């Protein structure tokens, strides 16, 4: 008897879930950006969200929930109902590195459902204009000669800019003093104002200030130049051979979100990325589009797990301290 009641209850739940999934979305969706407004993750979310609302027929709002290198914003999504109305945007930092650094209170793999891989951002090595160096080699010499460790802006321990900084320290032997912000948008403001020395930033964040001449760019951390900023050399060309890092991003929803809902969100994001106007905006920012076979939810899940296996040992060995 109890089994029959339980079976009927489960059937009701399933019917309820399907009905919700069929109607999805029936009201506005929120994308939680775990960093400051105006930064690279925020810009990507706004460009994508604006186009996704056309496919989904609902408003998409952006909510910036900042702090602890994005882990607070991701936590906000993990604790939301699994119905597709609260979506997490994040990247290698928030959805991989943070699991090796923070006591998160959630599991990045088992508490989230992958939706889609988003464009990747090559990093760019930039300094305040007051730094006298004119090339990457001169920058390295200047940084090494500084009597106190050069200051590097980051979006917190475990953010993209911080992982890039750790990698840079490893590759050059230069010790950096990290200055954490709630995103690289405020870090960039301080670089322009000359308050910090460098950022190893996402290209999409720094590129407009580089073009405006308010900061100096030395190299992009990829094996090919960024088309929309082709005057900036690669690290290979500029003398830091093999120093490559692109920061991939993605969308996730809470675990237990119906598959049909995940598929609808995935379809809208893919449609957005295939729209020539959206592609142009992303490519102007220096972003690289994912390949068609990388766009399924399963592909993002497999990629995230592979990145965890690759990065966690290195990050744990760096023994990153957080307050
Ligand atoms: C941001 O949007 O501020 C970033 O993605 C920060 C980072 O991870 O460096």
Under CATH, the homologous superfamily of the largest domain reads Bordetella uptake gene, domain 1
The overall pLDDT average reads 93
Could you state the order of secondary-structure elements as H and E?
HEHEHEHEHEHEHEHEHEHHH
Q: Any idea what the radius of gyration is? A: 21 Å
> In what range is the share of β-strand residues?
15-25%
Distance between the termini: 54 Å
What gross morphology would you assign?
globular
CATH fold-level topology of the largest domain = D-Maltodextrin-Binding Protein, domain 2
Estimate nothing, just give the exact number of structural domains. 2
Number of helices: 12
Alpha-beta classification = alpha/beta
CATH top level class name of the largest domain: Alpha Beta
Could you name the ranges where pLDDT drops below 50 across 5 or more consecutive residues? 1-17
Characterise the protein shown here:
α4 crosses α12. α6 links the parallel β5 and β6. This protein is 46% helix and 19% strand. It has two domains: 189 residues, D-Maltodextrin-Binding Protein, domain 2 (3-Layer(aba) Sandwich); 117 residues, Periplasmic binding protein-like II (D-Maltodextrin-Binding Protein, domain 2). Strands 1, 2, 3, 4, 7, 8 and 9 form a seven-stranded mixed beta sheet that branches. Strands 5-6 form a two-stranded parallel sheet. The chain is built from twelve helices and nine strands. The chain has 323 residues and is an alpha/beta fold. The protein binds D-malate. The site of D-malate has 15 residues, from α2, α6 and α7. It holds the Pfam family TctC.
């Amino acid at each position: 008897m109890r089994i029959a009641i339980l079976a009927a209850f489960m059937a009701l739940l399933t019917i309820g879930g399907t009905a919700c999934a069929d109607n999805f979305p029936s009201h506005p969706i929120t994308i939680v950006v775990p960093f400051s407004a105006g930064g690279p993750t925020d810009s990507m979310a706004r460009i994508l969200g604006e186009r996704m609302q056309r496919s989904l027929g609902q408003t998409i709002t952006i909510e910036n929930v900042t702090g602890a290198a994005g882990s607070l914003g991701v936590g906000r999504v993990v604790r939301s109902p699994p119905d597709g109305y609260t979506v997490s945007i994040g990247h290698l930092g928030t959805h991989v590195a943070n699991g090796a650094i923070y006591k998160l209170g959630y599991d990045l793999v088992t508490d989230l459902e992958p939706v889609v891989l988003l464009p990747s951002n090559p990093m760019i090595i930039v300094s305040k204009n007051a730094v006298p160096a004119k090339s990457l080699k001169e920058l390295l010499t200047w940084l090494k000669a500084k009597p106190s460790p050069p200051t590097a802006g980051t979006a917190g321990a475990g953010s993209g800019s911080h992982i890039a900084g750790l990698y840079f320290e490893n590759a050059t032997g230069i010790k950096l003093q990290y200055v954490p912000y709630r995103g690289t948008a405020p870090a960039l403001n301080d670089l322009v104002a000359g308050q910090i020395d460098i950022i190893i930033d996402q290209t999409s964040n720094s590129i407009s200030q580089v073009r405006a001449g308010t900061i100096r760019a030395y190299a992009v951390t990829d094996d090919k130049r960024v088309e929309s900023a082709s005057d900036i050399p690669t690290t290979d060309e500029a003398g830091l051979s093999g120093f490559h890092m692109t920061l991939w991003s993605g969308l996730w929803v809470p675990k237990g979100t119906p598959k049909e809902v995940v598929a609808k969100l995935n379809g809208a994001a893919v449609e957005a990325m295939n729209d020539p106007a959206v592609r142009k905006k992303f490519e102007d920012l220096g972003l690289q589009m994912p390949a068609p076979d990388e766009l399924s939810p399963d592909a993002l899940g497999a990629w995230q797990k592979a990145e965890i296996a690759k990065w966690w040992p290195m990050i744990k060995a760096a023994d990153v301290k957080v307050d």
